[in-house]
Amino acid sequence: MKSIFAPYPEYKTTHLGWLDKIPAHWELKRLKYLGEAIIGLTYSPDDVVSENEGTLVLRSSNIQNKRLSFEDNVFVAKIVPEKLKTQRGDILICARNGSRALIGKNAQIDECAEGMTFGAFMSIFRSSYNDYLSKVFNSALFEFQSGSFLTATINQLTTGNLNSFEIPLPPEDERKLIASFLEHETTKIDTLIEKQQTLIRLLKEKRQAVISHAVTKGLNPNAPMKESGVEWLGEVPEHWQVTRAKFVSKIFVPQRNKPDINDSTGTVWITMENMGQKYIYETEKFISPESAKAAGSKVLKARSVIASCVGNFGISSINKVDAIINQQLQAFQPKKIEPEYLQSIVEISKPYFQSIGTAATLIYVNQEGFENLPVLVPPQNEQEYICSFVEGKEAKFRDLVGKSIIQIALLKERRSALISAAVTGKIDVRNWKPTDNKNTEEVEVTA
Predict the structure, then answer these.
(1) Would you tell me how many other CB atoms lie within 10 Å of the CB of residue 287?
(2) Which of 442, 5, 407 is CA-nearest to residue 185?
(3) Per-residue confidence of the chain (447 residues) as pLDDT tens digits?
(4) Cβ atoms of 169 and 411 closer than 8 Å
(5) Minimal CA–CA distance to 371: which of 331, 341, 336, 325?
(6) In sequence order, what are the residues at sequence separation of 6 or more whose Cβ sits closer than 8 angstroms to the Cβ of residue 227?
(7) DSSP 3-state assignment of 398?
(8) Structural Rg of the chain based on CA atoms
(9) E strands, 298-411, in order
(10) What are the φ and ψ backbone dihedral angles of 12, each rounded to 5 degrees?
(11) Which helix (H) or strand (E) is 118 found in, with range?
(12) Nearest to 367 by CA among 356, 377, 376, 359
């Protein structure tokens, strides 16, 4: 990592294989000498209540991007021991999870989360050193030690594991300076990341607007218009046909029974996980002819428009190969309309699907709902022209979004490297002075 900061003038070797040296005046300390690791509250489904009737239990889903998030909450009506009530400064850690990648993710408790509790798959580390340790816990140093305790049979961080972690510890005044330095510098990086994320959101919104205008208004701004009779489509070119999907395509509904799946041979198996890309050429799962016959599976011919019938409306793909689809999906098999044009119609039809869906645990749209989807049909040559225009615009948007995604990855890499360098003593920030945080780039959307 390139840096304007020099290394410390003097180092000493350590016994740690993953960190060979630290500044000469730093110490190595186990976490058990710096604070206390505490496992969270055990509760049963019977203890879960509505928001106003209990205490919020912080879980893995309450940690997003190294910050606290309150979009997926659980509340319990149970007496919470004082020790298990969160305190400002505590570091909340995911200690057990079905996904190994989530173990060790953490966030610091702020004033908004004081007095809550945390679940038994979580831990907190409580220490007077936490303003500094919160930086250490978000470094490669912490990730390395967390990973060293995960094996094929052990998928958790126990309090014993956490207590045994060894931390390079500067003197108090230096800890405060390093913490201030990282807070200042990572805030600048986080601001740039947020701007790139905003850019991606704006690009996706503009992409949707461009597609919607092209497939509902056409590309000739001087074309005479007429009312479509469909509120969310509005006016459409006068010479276009306004019809229903059943008159220009056949609706494909998959089998009710799930076939046996394999990893190597047969017809490709498509689920919601494969959706969201314009074309599906292949998948990682297959259905053998024997399995398809046993389950009564129907094969969907290539060049169909596959769409979700259970939530996630508007997400669609065109299969480039014959496929078998699962029950969360249905498909349009175009007869009198270009698949790419019909796909664009499906993509902008979320209001329609949401308005007719029947709610159980998820909103569901049946075959009749797919059949009655309002569809606009321009002349064939105009369909092809619009599809070509949309594809060109989509390519530009994909390129811009891809560049922003790469930029975000580089910024996150820079953030992680900066934290690791500071908390392991690779850079000396003792002479650092804060600069103006306003020196960040503005976001501009062009396509």
Answers:
(1) 24
(2) 5
(3) 455 789 999 999 998 877 889 999 999 999 999 999 999 999 999 999 998 899 999 999 999 988 999 999 999 999 999 999 999 999 999 998 877 778 888 999 999 999 999 999 999 999 999 999 999 998 888 888 777 666 555 678 888 889 999 999 999 999 999 999 999 999 999 999 999 999 999 999 999 999 999 999 999 999 999 999 998 899 999 999 999 999 999 999 998 888 999 988 999 999 999 998 899 999 999 999 999 999 999 999 999 999 998 878 888 999 999 999 999 999 999 998 999 999 999 999 988 988 887 765 567 889 999 999 999 999 999 999 999 999 999 999 999 999 999 999 999 999 999 999 999 999 999 999 887 655 554 444 455
(4) no
(5) 331
(6) 234, 235
(7) helix
(8) 28
(9) 305-308, 316-319, 323-325, 329-334, 358-359, 363-364, 374-377
(10) -130, 150
(11) strand 117-118
(12) 356
Tokens 């606290």 belong to which residue?
68
Distance, CA of 278 to chain centre: 20
Tokens of 379: 């002349």
H or E segment at 173?
A: helix 172-217
Query: Hey, what amino acid is at 139?
Result: S
